[in-house]
Specification:
Chain lengths: 111, 111
């Protein structure tokens, strides 16, 4: 069955380190999204991509970057992790005719 | 820009109906979604509605869309304790390619 997976599920890192969160989908969806979920803010869009080589900034993109070298993967990189980036991160994918399917989330703690 | 607003909390008694409301601002929205998130889990699609529809019914769930007022609601009939969760409203616009979420409504079902 097609699916979307995130790794790692949990990560603890130190302030200033570079961290990459992986997202892999086998739906062959064009659209992929990264969100962070924080209490009181719901899900906020970090970056999104329409397809290979396409990336776009969401509402909270500062300090994050993504790359889309193939259809299946959209890794999220924190260039220099900060405590304010402690959060739960969700990846999602969709086609233009389907709902978005979500990964199980990555809980990131920056100490 | 795009914005999706929801009330943060709703408490009902088991067996009653629950109505969760959502407003959105993007008039180019193509699909509107309701997702459910149980504690510690990812997001699960409950139902969705195309922007050219007024109503959609799916077992205990009824979605109403007022496109003129940009208002979406989710009614859960005969609410059960297992319905306790956070419910997210989301809009997708095929024009912008963005999937934007509200803050989520926490539904508490009392026995």
């Amino acid at each position: 069955d097609a699916e979307i997976t995130q790794s790692p599920r949990h990560k603890i890192t130190e302030t200033g380190r570079q961290v990459t969160l992986a997202c892999h989908q086998t739906w062959n969806h064009n659209n992929m999204f990264w969100y962070r979920q924080d209490l009181g803010h719901g899900l906020r869009l970090i970056h999104y991509s329409y397809g290979v080589q396409d990336t776009n900034k969401g509402e909270v993109s500062d300090g994050y970057s993504v790359s889309r070298s193939n259809t299946e993967d959209l890794p999220l990189t924190l260039e220099s992790a900060a405590s304010s980036q402690t959060s739960v991160y969700f990846c999602a994918s969709s086609s233009d005719r389907t709902e978005a399917f979500f990964g199980q989330g990555t809980r990131l703690t920056v100490v | 820009g795009e914005d999706v607003e929801q009330s943060l909390f709703l408490s009902v008694r088991e067996g009653d109906s629950s109505v969760i409301n959502c407003t959105y601002t993007d008039s180019s929205s193509t699909y509107l979604y309701w997702y459910k998130q149980e504690p510690g889990a990812g997001l699960q699609l409950l139902t969705y509605i195309f922007s050219n529809m007024d109503m959609k019914q799916d077992q205990r769930l009824t979605v109403l869309l007022n496109k003129k007022d940009k208002h979406l609601s989710l009614r859960i009939a005969d609410t059960q304790t297992g319905d306790s969760a956070i419910y997210f409203c989301a809009e997708f616009s095929s024009n912008t390619g963005k999937l934007i979420f509200g803050q989520g409504t926490t539904l508490q079902v009392k026995p």
